[in-house]
Amino acid sequence: MAQEKNTLYCSFCGKSQHEVRKLIAGPTVFIYVECVQIFMDIIREENKNTLVKSRDGVP
After folding, report:
1. What is the rounded CA–CA span in Å between residue 22 and residue 19?
2. To the nearest 10°, the Cα dihedral for 31, 29, 18, 14?
3. Interval 11-36 mean pLDDT
4. Which among 28, 41, 54 is positioned nearest to 11, based on CA atoms?
5. Which has the minimum average pLDDT: 3-7, 33-37, 38-42?
6. What whole-number distance in Å separates Cα of residue 53 and Cα of residue 59?
7. Termini Cα distance of the chain
8. What angle do CA 25, 27, 32 make, to 5 degrees?
9. pTM for this one?
10. In 1-59, which residue ranges form alpha helices assigned H by DSSP?
11. Is the CA virtual torsion 42, 34, 36, 28 positive or negative?
12. 19 in Cβ contact with 35 (< 8 Å)
């Protein structure tokens, strides 16, 4: 039971430190490196779509 209390979990996907390769620590949260990759992919896609929209009116 003490081990469960000390187990760290990803604040986004909920996976424990025992299920993942690496957790990145923030001041009060942890994030699994694969969650970081998912968020980076989402941001890249959003930026790509924004860039395309901003060029729509350019001749």
Report:
1. 9
2. -70
3. 95
4. 28
5. 3-7
6. 13
7. 65
8. 25
9. 0.67
10. 2-6, 33-54
11. positive
12. no
State the amino acid at position 40 in one-letter form.
M
Record the tokens describing residue 58, joined without a space.
């350019």
Q: Are strands 30-32 and 23-25 parallel, antiparallel or unpaired?
A: antiparallel
CA pair distance 27, 25, nearest whole angstrom:
7
The residues spanned by each domain of the chain are 7-54
**Residues paired with residue 24 on neighbouring β-strands, in sequence order:** 31
Residue 15 neighbours by CB under 8 Å, 6+ apart:
9, 32
**How does DSSP classify residue 9?**
B
Residues with Cβ within 8 Å of 25's Cβ and at least 6 positions away in sequence, in order, are: 8
